[in-house]
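Handout, section B. The chain below has 467 residues.
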Amino acid sequence: MVLIWLDRFSFYLLPEWLLLVLLTLVVVVAAKWATAARPLGQVPFRATVSIVILPAWLWLVMLPAWLGWMTLSASLARLGLGLVFVIGLGWVVWLVERSSRLLLAKRSVTSLRGGSTAMPLLAMNGAPGQAAVRTSNPLDIEAWYYGRKHRKLNQSASTVAAYSLLFVLLVLLAGFLTGCNEIYEMPEGGGEPQLRQQVVRIQKVIRKKYVINPFSAVLFNPPPIEEIKLQLQELTRHIYQVGQGQGKNAGFEGGTRRGTVRFIRLSYPGGDWEQDLDRNSDMNMLLWYAANTGHNTAKKPEVRSVRQLKRFPVGKSPPMVYMTGQGKISLGKTDIEILHEYLTDKHGMLFADNGGSPGWHSQFFSVMEKVLPRVKPQPVPLDHPVHSGVPFLPVVAPHGGRTAWGWVVDGRLAVYYHPGDVGDAWADGHAGVSRQVWESGFRLGGNIMLYAHSEYSRWLTAKNNSD
């Protein structure tokens, strides 16, 4: 059970289906064990049932996650945690009560042998005139810190408080041991790693009442991803799939059933890395990607710091992170090492977008000299896959010129630098640029996301086959 838990949340050595099979066997064996304990009495039976609940809870959390029902899995995880708390509290209260009564009974017998007539009930109520007993045992109702009145109430309150504190600490410890790692998984499937121009016609149907054009000039207050239904023409649905590999549905050969494409923005010290977030730039880009690929997509974009990239293990890291700003980029030695590891060992891709100053341009190039000291930047031509279907580089404002730059690692584009604030083109209102510019901006962002995930999927598949 412990090995299954650790592999599920930390090691990632076994496939999900195998973990489910092993956990099912554990639940079946534990259930038979609980049934066999019934003739032994209520206490052994209830104890075994309480133990069986733990693997059953994990099974209920893992099965919806494997099926891709992440919301249900998260809800069951929270409900199960509350159930474990209540069951544990019940057993702690029972043990404390049982131990307290045994100590009182033992003291009562000792007192009677000595000629005293003190009774346990009087001790529990703190009867006046009773000889004081000096003890620090929390299981003893006469412990000095429970006072002289309402000892039973004080003991019960102390037990609940101590148990609650210990439970929180254990949850935090479990999170540290198994949750210090964060995982990123792509949706399973296959297809061609290239978006085609005008392949499908798509509408966003919200609550089956309103139709919103995803290519309109303004996308104010975009709806949640889960409320979007993609309507694809049947013909194009079968002749073309977006993704990588030989899977049946649009997705990636290196993906999983529960995987989703996520848009992660990188935060860093010193600059205004959050610009255009309040105007839904990342959300609009995520919506555009979902509409044009059909991939399972996260509900909303996310933000991670450079330090948080360290939490993602090799093989479960984000294929791409987005970085923008116009102020100062202040990265320390540790940040540089984390970025280097992310781009090389973890096969990640950095999409950098100059949000508004020539100074950011020079700072970013200076940072990359430290992150990838052996790699020289080179212009990214328009015939590169990330520029597929883009007639020109969409530039909102030429803060760093009009040339896209790239850093190539092991034959793949590991860093893409956009000089002209393409994130502004994704934001509500599209910064007032022409339709051709912002449409090309969305296309460019979608190309980069698809390219990063496709390259990551190829690498992950080759890595898994070689292990």
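Note. The domain at 190-466 is CATH 3.40.50.12140 (Rossmann fold). Compare this with the example in section A.
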